From TrEMBL, chains A, B:
Gene3D superfamilies: 3.40.50.20, ATP-grasp fold, A domain, ATP-grasp fold, B domain
SUPFAM superfamilies linked: Glutathione synthetase ATP-binding domain-like, PreATP-grasp domain, Rudiment single hybrid motif
Reactions that this protein is recorded to catalyse: 5-amino-1-(5-phospho-beta-D-ribosyl)imidazole + hydrogencarbonate + ATP = 5-carboxyamino-1-(5-phospho-D-ribosyl)imidazole + ADP + phosphate + 2 H(+)
Enzyme Commission number(s) of this protein: 6.3.4.18
Self-association and partners: Homodimer.
Gene: purK
PANTHER family: PHOSPHORIBOSYLAMINOIMIDAZOLE CARBOXYLASE, PURINE BIOSYNTHESIS PROTEIN 6/7, PUR6/7
Pathway terms, separated by semicolons: Purine metabolism; IMP biosynthesis via de novo pathway; 5-amino-1-(5-phospho-D-ribosyl)imidazole-4-carboxylate from 5-amino-1-(5-phospho-D-ribosyl)imidazole (N5-CAIR route): step 1/2
Name the record gives this protein: N5-carboxyaminoimidazole ribonucleotide synthase
Domain of life: Bacteria
Domain named ATP-grasp: residues: 111-291
Similarity field: Belongs to the PurK/PurT family.
InterPro entries named in the record: ATP-grasp, ATP-grasp_carboxylate-amine, ATP_grasp_subdomain_1, PreATP-grasp_dom_sf, PurK, PurK_C, PurT/PurK_preATP-grasp, Rudment_hybrid_motif
Amino acid sequence: MDTRTGLPVVGMVGGGQLARMTHQAAISLGQSLRVLSESPDDSAALVAADVRIGTHTDLAALREFAKGCEAVTFDHEHVPTEHIEALEAEGVKIFPGSGALVFAQDKGMMRERLAALKAPVPRWRRVNDISDMSEIGWPVVAKATRGGYDGRGVWVLDDEKAAAELIATGTPLIVEEKVALKRELAALVARSPFGQVAAYPVVETVQKDGICVEVLAPAPGLPEDLAVQAQQLAIDLANALGVVGLLAVELFETDEGIVVNELAMRPHNSGHWTIEGARTSQFEQHLRAVLDYPMGETSLTAPAVVMANVLGGAPGGISIDERLHHLFAEDPGARVHLYGKQVRPGRKIGHVTVLGDDMTSVRARAARAARWLQEGA
Amino acid sequence: MDTRTGLPVVGMVGGGQLARMTHQAAISLGQSLRVLSESPDDSAALVAADVRIGTHTDLAALREFAKGCEAVTFDHEHVPTEHIEALEAEGVKIFPGSGALVFAQDKGMMRERLAALKAPVPRWRRVNDISDMSEIGWPVVAKATRGGYDGRGVWVLDDEKAAAELIATGTPLIVEEKVALKRELAALVARSPFGQVAAYPVVETVQKDGICVEVLAPAPGLPEDLAVQAQQLAIDLANALGVVGLLAVELFETDEGIVVNELAMRPHNSGHWTIEGARTSQFEQHLRAVLDYPMGETSLTAPAVVMANVLGGAPGGISIDERLHHLFAEDPGARVHLYGKQVRPGRKIGHVTVLGDDMTSVRARAARAARWLQEGA
């Protein structure tokens, strides 16, 4: 507890934009997020008051960081499982716990556990040799079991030759069928240690080159029964895996229904729209969950909400500050979130959210706003 | 400019809750608010990354603070006019400028200027001796020309005896008629150096013992012509006084129309509802104004929005953290803002905002939520 305020201290490992936006939410709750950041120039470190410099692979740094925190949680999934176990053994309240987080860290374990829970998953194998791939049938999707994100660590392989090259790198892999998907969805829930689970409306996520570019809330035209099924699946998984905090279940919608693609156990890009688009943002909800506060309302604040990511464009051209001037003149209702990151091509440097009554026009506005910030010239 | 982000640096003098919430808004714009705070335990200093310790009456501290800021602005009105003038002479962009701010600092000058602009004001006098008061007719409202807030520096005087006692203290005073008011309203606008002015919907403010306890947005039952008149008055005053940033015009509604009570030139308690209740919060709007960005949309996000202040209750009883647990269980849709301040009876320690379709029920929920946080036991 912070003795100056009488309110709890939450520590977040990692100084990226998720920690940045979680700090923003913490301020409303009377808190100040403690951030473990690799560099003082990281996105969250630029704005938080209580920043400790250190790396998530350093157990001593994690241990020191956790002192005085009511709860420790994560901006990413890269903290070694054994470090989390060590902290848990020492009595640190760290959420999600090692027993849950491992299913977001290791795709092989995730697939095995989901199969055991009879959750809908694509056909898959752990890859020992090339026969595991050819059994699935070409083309296949190969994934590194650990460490991938934003399209990294995922390969679509058309034939044995490409597969052999990847296997030769020695990366531990799983392989999945290339699902004939209609689109991608995400179901976001939050679960507290008490066991309360709150579910957000199911959204559509639009990917380009493996990176999420747009999120549409609620998922347009999604049949009610499928929406309820997706929410229930996320609730069941949160309970079965013992998740504390947010759980984002990334889904493929196919002709036969939904299948689970990935799990994330932290505030997630598919939930950024909740800052303005839901009564309680995912960032506040995550804090409430890890502190075992009752969950906040998850309903939409407008009939149509679209979040569009702002990706770094080509170097040069007009500055981000000038682009912001132009965007604000162009669309006074666009809600901008910039992460304070150096622009690199393809890097997520911010997002824009637009709310309204009509999904088609809201989507067009959000896409235009994101493009405006990205390219500008 | 912050070279790490390519985005501007705004400095805010004063480390109270207004700076705290402005920092929260700055984060979305890719910025990190620089705060000049008297103590590291001040509300904003607890959450901001770029905190300088110093006092607003120290010109050297102000000068050092302003270095590298694109714009300097205020959390309160207490910076000496001559210090602002000195900084302006040195080329610091400080908003509102001394020429405007003085009308929020000095009630005598404000009344004179408003009268010259033919704005509606109560009958008033500068107080030289008791005859200035008796001319107005008992009871009168006496106000210290400088330094009052939240009911401090304001006295209702019933007779000559009470008046004589106050005059004997030597405090420079103005005196006004005690207006037969139906209720209090506030018109909030923001103006940029370019001259763009954005107006928020006119709200009703409910006071108790001179402290604002509730704000209802929009002001229930306010005739459209009176709402437009109040907005136009605020726009005209912002232009005439050359305000840059926010201007809150506190108004009395009487049987004869509206009269101006007070002016504030900063984010204002009557605008806290805008965080969730308007497309652009007053805090972001203030930043956009002082940086000469185009203004954001000011429309309501729900038909009825109520902000209720949380005042410190009697010492003892259950802790603020426990009260928060109870409130979140009681009303999952209440939006809480705690300022990280030590509880003292009557001190504003936070606020709660509730949104909905029906003003009566929204107001009841907001009042209950604020009471819950205040007393709890």
